[in-house]
Amino acid sequence: MNDGLSLFGELRIVSHRRDHFLLGAELADALESCEAVLDIVSRNLVVNIGTSVFSRLLGGGAGSPQVYHPSAPFGFSELADLSVASMMLGNTVSPHAPDPDDTTGPSTPIFTPNLTVTYPTWYSVRFSGLVPQPEFDGTIFTEEALLLRNGALFAKTRFQRQKTAAFGLQFDHEITIGRAP
Q: What is the separation of C-alpha 69 from the centre of its chain, rounded to a whole number of angstroms?
């Protein structure tokens, strides 16, 4: 019997002309009718600080030893600080591949979209951000990161997608907790 858990994420970028998030059946219908296009699917890396969030939540913030990282000085009693609060998009010319020891978001951040949180399954959470149709025309986005309420990095991915005036870009970053293989 395998009772271990794994934590992984995926970023999907969808191009569409609507001025709101496409979720669930509306997204499926838009993709089927070609009103929306799935541009990129990229696995992300949940960094070490991000994985430690789950053990801290399960332990209720109590216990010893206290884990501390210089870039994430959150107290164990402040569990609200451990929730994902923002998505940051960047356009770094040569972004490095995400590393488990990363502690910062994009090195050249350019946009932080409003974040919508949904739970598509009982074992996953989706964070969605929208870059509206007319904004950032010509910008090449190369990095996306999820940041905790206290500013610490949770997960990060890189890709390359140029924004055009014809479409908005919807960034759906889904984190899944599953059984380890």
A: 21
